[in-house]
Each structure stands twice: as structure tokens, then as C-alpha cells.
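Observation: inputs received (chain + ribulose-5-phosphate).
Thought: call the complex predictor directly.
Action: predict_structure
Action Input:
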Amino acid sequence: MSNRDDDKRLAAYAALEQIEPGWTVGVGTGSTANWFIDGLGEVKRDVAGAVASSEASAERLRDVGIPLVELWDVGRLPIYVDGADEATRRGELIKGGGGALTREKIVAEASDRFVCIVDSSKVVERLGAFPLPVEIVPLARRQIAERLGQLGGRPVLREGFTTDNGNAILDVHDLKLDDPQGLEAELNQIPGVVTNGLFCRRPADLLIVADRGHVSHIR
Ligand code: 5RP
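Observation:
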């Protein structure tokens, strides 16, 4: 296992300590979230169930024996745990590298605490080096791409990829993220945009960062 994979596992296992017995847990998507799911499988007696943010995470949760719960049945969750593509120390994130951003944002929003688990390569001073994923209704692809171009972005269609919601993803390069909260809101106003991968209006409450075997908690 590489250092980075080792750190993803360390951050994910550290997040298990944030869970209280009997809780239903919101679970993210991606390789770091997969480690968290594996950890949940090891402590499953303590967990009532999980709300998954993707079909892939649902399948993995099923495999490790965690009961799946629908968000509409629970309404709110005490905690949501997920990775990120970029994270500032203030908890602002870019997410969606795995294409699950819409369900991730829904579950994060429905949770009292959002714990973000990353290896140190994801921590940045300023968001924006990672191309911003935007989930779109395919019909509106051309109009949305033109609008993103006017905003200074260079949208690239994620080829051969369909989200769990049946939509497409544009990965937007070169956007200036001087006002990430403002841009998050602005992008959502474009007709046909389902969600964008800026998680700044509802940032992470706790960032767990692993750096070459050392874990730190940033609130
Ligand atoms: C999926 C995500 C992931 O959290 C993000 O892509 C990080 O993935 P990984 O843990 O594999 O590095 O937002 O939509």
C-alpha cells in the first residue's frame, strides 16, 4: 500500500471515533470513504445503519453487513463522513471526483456534523486546482458549457460516465474561485445544473487529515 493509501485508511479509521453507539451514519463515496465503510464493518454492532451517498457505497455497505437506511425514513442524521478532492483548513471542499456529488451534498446537508477525511495531498490554501465537477441534465449541456465559458471556465465532458441520477458531469477547469460561496450559488442558478462540487455554503465541521502516519483534527 502506498503512503497515500495508508493515510486515507488512517483518516477513515480515525473518523470511527466520532460515532456514538446506535447512530445511523451518512456515508460518502470514493476510496477514502471505502476505508471508512470497511471500518464500519469491523465495528458494526455499534451502528444502527447507514445512508449511502451512491450505489457503489450502498453495495459496499451491504457487503460488510451494515443495514441500509433511506434518507426519507430518517430525515436527519447525526453525522456524515466523506472524502474530498480538495479541502481548505476552513472545511471548504471541492467534491465530485467520483461523480457522486449530488447525493453527497444532499446527505451532508441533512446531517448535524460533516466529518471530512483526507490524506494531506488534498489540503490546499485555496480551492481551484482540481477541475470543478458539475452534474448536469444532458439536454442542457451546450447552454451550460457556454455559460461556464463566460464565467472563465473550460468545461470538459466526463466521457462515458453517467451519474447514479442518470445525468452527465462537466469537469470545469480554470475557474477563478475568489468567492467560492458566491460561485456555488451562482452555478446552481444555471438551468440544467443539478449540483456543483463546491461544498462551501455547508462546509465540513471537522477535517481529519492524515499525513505520513500522523493524524490531525482541524475544526
Ligand atoms: C466522490 C467524491 C470523493 O469524496 C472524492 O472524489 C475523493 O475521492 P477519494 O477518496 O477516492 O480520493 O467527492 O464524488
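Thought: report the result.
Final Answer: The first helix runs from residue 3 to 15. The chain has two domains: 3-125+201-218, 132-196.
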